[in-house]
């Protein structure tokens, strides 16, 4: 193996520790404990594991959690109503709807029921638009985590050619937009792309977000390329053939221990940020009302 590893675990632990310090400070100063609500629909064991993992990490960082578990037969209307309740609840600061939801549910409608100020997973149209326009807001956690990882390893982004494989609204598409905002030249590829391997061979940075185990092969890569494997497939296998790619790449993320921990770290960081912002907004409103009365 000639590539250097881009490890997310330690960086993520530092981010979680910093989020924990901010959470503690908020409790000390205002009595408000940041709270992340997770919504799980159905009984998919992998989704249940992801939600548990997020709740455990929240707890370790001093972030409270609220768990909503709904049966697999839940309708869109029922799910939207639950999410609207959380959106209106002042004790909840971040809302995470675990993806995927059962097929009968209109996932977009459910995501859009999340109040923008609580969209700490960056899944709403508001969050996406804010990111695309470069306005303040919460970014989708996996793409945001990828950017943090690239920055931490001092990967030059300006002028670099980044090839993103995958264009899902929560991963590929926002990952490309964040790279573009960092002045990379971005090529999106997807299931209809012709000559994919040839395009990937021109990349300084490859982001694999496909959902197919060992999909990107070593001979698709330019020597020295930076390879970000966002994939997570059964048996802890990424979307990149790690052994082959590590012989050619300059930097590569492992699976697990690369992008995954960064995603959770950013979720917690954004939950604390949401709690700070919502608490600030409440105290400003109260101060304004008192001003008005006096
Ligand atoms: P998704 O919604 O299924 O999207 C997959 C994308 O890959 C689609 O845009 C699809 O193209 C493209 N694709 C499929 N087959 C292809 C092919 N043969 N050639 C080129 N492109 C192809 O998946 P996702 O939610 O983005 O997730 C992608 C991977 O990331 C999965 O392994 C998932 O488990 C992982 N993931 C990891 C994290 C984390 O925290 N680490 C978070 C989320 C997801 P079309 O648009 O043309 O269909």
UniProtKB/TrEMBL annotation:
Residues 8-121 form the Tetrahydrofolate dehydrogenase/cyclohydrolase catalytic domain. This is Bifunctional protein FolD. CDD domains: NAD_bind_m-THF_DH_Cyclohyd. Homodimer. Coiled coil: none annotated. It comes from the Bacteria. Belongs to the tetrahydrofolate dehydrogenase/cyclohydrolase family. Keywords: Amino-acid biosynthesis, Histidine biosynthesis, Hydrolase, Methionine biosynthesis, Multifunctional enzyme, NADP, One-carbon metabolism, Oxidoreductase, Purine biosynthesis. Catalyzes the oxidation of 5,10-methylenetetrahydrofolate to 5,10-methenyltetrahydrofolate and then the hydrolysis of 5,10-methenyltetrahydrofolate to 10-formyltetrahydrofolate. It comes from Kribbella ginsengisoli. NADP(+) binds at residues 166-168.
């Amino acid at each position: 193996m000639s590539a250097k590893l881009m490890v997310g675990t330690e960086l993520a632990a530092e981010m979680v520790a910093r989020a924990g310090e901010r959470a503690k400070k908020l409790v000390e100063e205002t009595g408000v404990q940041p709270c992340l609500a997770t919504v799980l629909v159905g009984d998919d064991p992998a989704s249940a594991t992801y939600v548990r993992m997020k709740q455990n990490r929240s707890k370790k960082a001093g972030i409270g959690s609220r768990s909503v578990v709904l049966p697999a037969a839940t309708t869109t209307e029922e799910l939207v109503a639950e999410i609207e309740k959380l959106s209106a609840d002042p004790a909840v600061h971040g809302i995470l709807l675990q993806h995927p939801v059962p097929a009968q549910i209109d996932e977009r409608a459910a995501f859009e029921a999340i109040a923008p100020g609580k969209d700490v997973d960056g899944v709403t149209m508001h969050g996406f638009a804010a990111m695309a326009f470069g306005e303040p807001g919460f970014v989708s956690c996996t793409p945001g985590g990828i950017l943090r990882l690239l920055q931490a390893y001092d990967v030059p982004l300006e002028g670099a050619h980044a090839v993103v494989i995958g264009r899902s609204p929560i991963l590929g598409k926002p990952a490309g937009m964040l790279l573009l905002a960092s002045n990379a030249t971005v090529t999106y590829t997807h299931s209809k792309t012709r000559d994919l391997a040839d395009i990937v061979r021109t990349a300084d940075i490859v982001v694999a977000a496909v959902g197919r185990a060992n999909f990107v092969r070593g001979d698709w890569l330019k020597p020295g390329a930076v390879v970000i494997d966002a994939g997570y497939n059964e048996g802890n296998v990424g979307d990149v053939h790690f052994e082959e790619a590590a012989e050619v790449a300059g930097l590569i993320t492992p699976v697990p221990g690369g992008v995954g921990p960064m995603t959770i770290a950013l979720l917690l960081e954004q939950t604390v940020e949401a709690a700070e912002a919502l608490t600030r907004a409440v105290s400003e409103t109260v101060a304004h009302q008192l001003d008005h009365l006096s």
